[in-house]
TrEMBL record:
GO molecular function: ATP binding
CDD domains (UniProt xref): ABC_DR_subfamily_A
Protein name per UniProt: ABC transporter ATP-binding protein
Naturally occurring in which organism (per UniProt): Streptomyces cylindrosporus
PANTHER family from the UniProt entry: ABC TRANSPORTER ATP-BINDING PROTEIN ALBC-RELATED
Amino acid sequence: MEAYGVGKKYRRGWALKDCSFRLPAGRICGLVGPNGAGKTTLMGMAADLLAPTTGSVRVFGTAPGSPEAQRRTAFLAQEKPLYRRFTVAETLRLGRELNPGWDQRAAENIVRAGNVPFEARIGTLSGGQRTRVAFAVAFGKRPDLLILDEPMSDLDPLVRHELMGALMAEAAAHGTTVLMSTHMLAELENVCDHLVVIADGGLRLAGGVDELRSAHVRLTGTFQATGPAGADAALARHTVVDSRADGYRITALVRPAGPVDGVWQAETPTLEELLLAYLRSPQVPPLITNESQVGDRNLAKAVAA
Ligand SMILES: Nc1ncnc2c1ncn2[C@@H]1O[C@H](COP(=O)(O)OP(=O)(O)OP(=O)(O)O)[C@@H](O)[C@H]1O
């Protein structure tokens, strides 16, 4: 999936501005950002539910509305639209009729693992059970791109664990690309190997989790003689994403421009530390790793189109 200079303007203003990135195939990508950052908007455009105001989104090299993209993409929305009067079995039958590559066994297995009765009407199920059925429909479609909008918010921890396991197994077996918005950092650490962070409608981070983490260091040092000013001077060459002083002790999350001078204890930050630091510091320039960048020529062409 690629976004080329994508922007979306609603009546109240811009929800997303000038987002350009590439999500390589086969990744499980966490889409993270504060409430109202533009995550649902971005996913809606990839699923062809919304049209961008500027730029364009491409999936499998085509427009999200193309027959190929529609066939190969499944979108699980936050509100899980299912027909309340259908039974679970009828819901799966509808999935089978609408999708040529339907995998009935995969869908049934997910329903069965939660002991959800096939003859129960959707309207009588609990929120979590409905989410499970929606998952079953999304998996049954055997998509190459699975877009999940906060899929776990109404699931208990055991079910969340089980469905995430099923998701990872499915993605590993079939090379499925997953784009999943979430506020649960634990989910990110365990499940995602790729990350896209947006805040205030703009891209903050995009790239493989390992590469993003290892592009930063968390530094801790004591600056008894000079205080925070000494730390600032020692880090002047580097991009300081976030720093805190606790007496003489300075902790800084840094994107180093080369070797770091001074007496620091250096560690690779956790994903959570990295995320929080970028979300707290809107003035720091975004980091888009090489593999996540879209070429300038393609970008210019797509924006002009
Ligand atoms: N249909 C709409 N009409 C007007 N404004 C909208 C519409 N949909 C979204 N917005 C606005 O666009 C911005 C981005 O919303 P979006 O739902 O994409 O955020 P989000 O990152 O998914 O948030 P959350 O984490 O709360 O789900 C918000 O300011 C929201 O109020």
